């Protein structure tokens, strides 16, 4: 009862004391807008005063607009606590350090043109959620929840949920990888895995090498860690081996980051021979590899190509960072690091220091889903869907776009080069016509190449692909004719 702390004195009029008490309680934030006040009868009883004094106080407060009475419901506070101008104020902008500034500056969600409802988007490379087997996932959730929901809702291990770790070890074995002396850390997707690895293995100004272009989130993380990034040229079938050797020889990077399958943004899948050459060069110069295996499962056009880590046999020079984000559910944020067990032991402590562990309930459901065989069926289904979309997109690009180069062996996107035009100019015009794509410069370490665009087709229907690509083609023809 808000009046239990009020001691009525004899000097001041009673109704004034009640009014002031209510105002003070609002000021202190104890009475909030919408709080119900006790009835006048209750107040008079509790305080042992005449009811008329309480009625008068309530009437005065109502006239001031501080409270309001609703017939049959009661009396309520009508105002918020007054915000005082001398509240504690901080100029946060002056506090933000380089890390925060860089992350914001390189945040393409904020810096690039946004998708708006009704637009055709070739910007996203997220999976098409209409393919998700919600029913099977729901079943996995109910099963795991009824079996061990209590445990999964408690704290778990930093390394991850043991059955999922065992499942992924077996999964890696099936990729042809030797698992002796290796271990797994479950992470919040590839993004956290990469950040944990760079935090653990590098310091500012260390040299890191990578393909150029490369995954723009990886560029952001490398730049946020203030690494000295050495870009390596790419050919139409993947990294240029001469450029790789030259870079490793000249700079001896601390580490190299590579995406051998469905490289983002080019969509190139490095063949087995090239993988062997890349591995041999890195081994020769003793530069450890972080292999980003995020999209491997989508390989649908050829037989299985073993990841780089499979080439290292009993060696420990390759760290494999995996993720199910592009094949399964990116929203569940499950990825993993597979590497030398001594390294995983340290990474486990880093993970614990950051966020204790990845959600155990999510890992439990995910494991049940994978184990039930649903994953295998799902991958088989989506490979076919995405292959059809890829074929259709390529065909449509051939029909409408006067391109100079098209890269991509499948997956979820295609990288297109238009000589003589800055693809940002194309984007500006396309945007006016409700079509959006990713300008290619964001994938280059210094945004140096301006003639590329990434066309993501994972979430667009064939009708949208046809309409959108046609518009892009028309814009290109129109800009080219203006330039001539
Ligand atoms: C090259 C690459 N690696 C990994 C990922 C997946 O990242 P995450 O698992 O954090 O969603 C993506 C997503 O676009 C990617 O392009």
From TrEMBL:
Residues 12-80 form the HTH gntR-type domain. CDD domains: AAT_like, WHTH_GntR. SUPFAM superfamilies: PLP-dependent transferases, Winged helix' DNA-binding domain. One of its GO terms (molecular function) is 2-aminoadipate transaminase activity. The keyword Isomerase does not apply. Its EC number is 2.6.1.39. Keywords: Aminotransferase, DNA-binding, Pyridoxal phosphate, Transcription, Transcription regulation, Transferase. In the C-terminal section; belongs to the class-I pyridoxal-phosphate-dependent aminotransferase family. This is 2-aminoadipate transaminase.
């Amino acid at each position: 009862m808000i009046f239990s702390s009020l001691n009525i004195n004899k000097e001041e009029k009673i109704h004034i004391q009640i009014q002031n008490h209510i105002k003070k309680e609002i000021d202190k934030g104890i009475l909030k807008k919408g709080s119900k006040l006790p009835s006048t009868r209750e107040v008079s009883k509790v305080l042992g005063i005449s009811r008329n004094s309480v009625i008068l106080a309530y009437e005065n407060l109502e006239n001031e607009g501080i409270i309001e009475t609703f017939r049959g419901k009661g009396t309520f506070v009508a105002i918020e606590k007054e915000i005082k101008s001398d509240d504690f104020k901080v100029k946060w902008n002056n506090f933000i350090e380089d890390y925060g500034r860089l992350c914001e500056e390189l945040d393409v969600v904020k810096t690039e043109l946004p998708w708006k409802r009704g637009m055709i988007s070739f910007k996203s490379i997220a999976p098409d959620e209409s393919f998700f087997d919600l029913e099977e996932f729901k079943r996995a959730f109910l099963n795991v929840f009824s079996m061990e929901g209590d445990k999964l809702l408690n704290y778990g291990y930093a390394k991850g949920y043991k059955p999922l770790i065992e499942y992924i070890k077996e999964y890696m074995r099936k990729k042809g990888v030797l698992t002796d002396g290796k271990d797994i850390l479950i992470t919040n997707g590839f993004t956290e895995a990469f950040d944990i690895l760079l935090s653990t293995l590098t310091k500012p100004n260390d040299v890191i090498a990578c393909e150029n272009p490369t995954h723009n989130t990886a560029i952001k993380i490398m730049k946020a860690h203030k690494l000295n990034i050495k870009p390596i040229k790419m050919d139409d079938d993947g990294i240029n081996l001469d450029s790789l050797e030259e870079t490793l020889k000249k700079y001896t990077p601390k580490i190299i980051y590579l995406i051998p399958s469905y490289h983002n943004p080019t969509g190139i899948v490095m063949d087995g021979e090239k993988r062997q050459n890349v591995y041999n060069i890195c081994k020769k110069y003793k530069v450890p590899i972080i292999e980003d295996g995020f999209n491997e499962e989508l390989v649908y056009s050829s037989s299985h190509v073993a990841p780089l880590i499979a080439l290292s046999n009993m060696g420990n020079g390759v760290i494999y960072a995996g993720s199910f984000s592009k094949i399964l559910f990116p929203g569940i944020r499950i990825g993993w690091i597979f590497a030398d067990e001594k390294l995983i032991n340290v990474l486990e402590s880093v993970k614990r220091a950051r966020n204790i562990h990845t959600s155990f309930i999510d890992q439990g459901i995910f494991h049940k889903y994978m184990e039930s065989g649903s994953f295998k069926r799902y991958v088989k289904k989506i490979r076919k869907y995405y292959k059809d979309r890829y074929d259709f997109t390529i065909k449509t690009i051939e029909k409408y776009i006067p391109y100079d180069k098209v890269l991509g062996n499948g997956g979820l996107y295609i990288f297109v080069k238009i000589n003589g035009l800055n693809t940002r100019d194309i984007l500006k015009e396309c945007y006016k016509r409700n079509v959006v794509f990713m300008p290619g410069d964001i994938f280059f370490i210094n945004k140096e190449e301006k003639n590329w665009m990434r066309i993501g087709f994972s979430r667009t229907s064939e009708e949208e692909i046809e309409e959108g690509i046609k518009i892009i083609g028309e814009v290109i023809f129109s800009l080219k004719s203006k330039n001539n």
